[in-house]
Amino acid sequence: EQITLMDFQQFKKIEIPEILRWGKKQSEKLNPNLTAFTEHFNNISYWIRTCILLEERQQDREKIMGTCIKILKCLRRMNNFNSYLAILSALDCASVRRLDWQKQFTTAIEELSSLIDNTMSFKIYRTALAEAKPPCIPYLGLILQDVTFTILGNPDKLPDGSINFQGRWKLYTIVKDIENFQNWY
């Protein structure tokens, strides 16, 4: 619960113009709240990796892995997809993956990772996000990717000089979802 509280405090500070600017110019200086949220994601991931890798005994590493699995299940129940992915990315890094793990741990991680399978444009995650009952903290990395692709793939004006309303509508739906997520807690 504390991770989710910290995530939401950071997530709520992100302003929509930061997200839209990021799609055009990925500047840490212009997007301080977005940068802070991204750093928070990276810090969680680094912390988990470090906790596991600093343990010399397999038994101690497995205890931490068991705790991580419990945390992941809790984050999923709370619809905190951002920290969910931060922890999964830590567990999926090469230095952690190469360690010897009991089958129960590798099976659990495979099952928990199925949510973020990147085939078909993260279809399983997108479905889970669409079906999630608020409150919810989405994985911001995919949102930023969607914004960037929408901006790059949809010029502001059509060849005839008219406004590209379809492209603007796509951006609006992304922004509206973010606002809905930010205002549910």
Structure notes:
The protein has 185 residues and is an all-alpha fold. The protein has a single domain (2-182), classed as Ras guanine-nucleotide exchange factors catalytic domain (Son of Sevenless (SoS) protein, Chain S, domain 2, Orthogonal Bundle). Helix content is 71%, strand content 0%. Residues 1-185 form the Ras-GEF domain. Keywords: Guanine-nucleotide releasing factor. Pfam families: RasGEF (PF00617). GO terms for molecular function: guanyl-nucleotide exchange factor activity. One of its GO terms (biological process) is small GTPase-mediated signal transduction.
Topology:
Elements: H1 2-13, H2 16-24, H3 32-54, H4 58-77, H5 81-91, H6 94-97, H7 103-113, H8 123-131, H9 140-153, H10 165-182
What's this, in brief?
With 185 residues, the chain is mainly α.
* Unreliable stretches covering 5 or more consecutive residues: none
Please count the beta strands (DSSP E, at least 2 residues each): 0
Biggest sheet overview: none
Mean pLDDT: 92
Strand content: under 5%
Computed structural class: mainly alpha
Please supply descriptive tags for the structure shown above.
single chain, 185 residues, Son of Sevenless (SoS) protein, Chain S, domain 2, 10 helices, RASGEF_cat_dom_sf, RASGEF_cat_dom
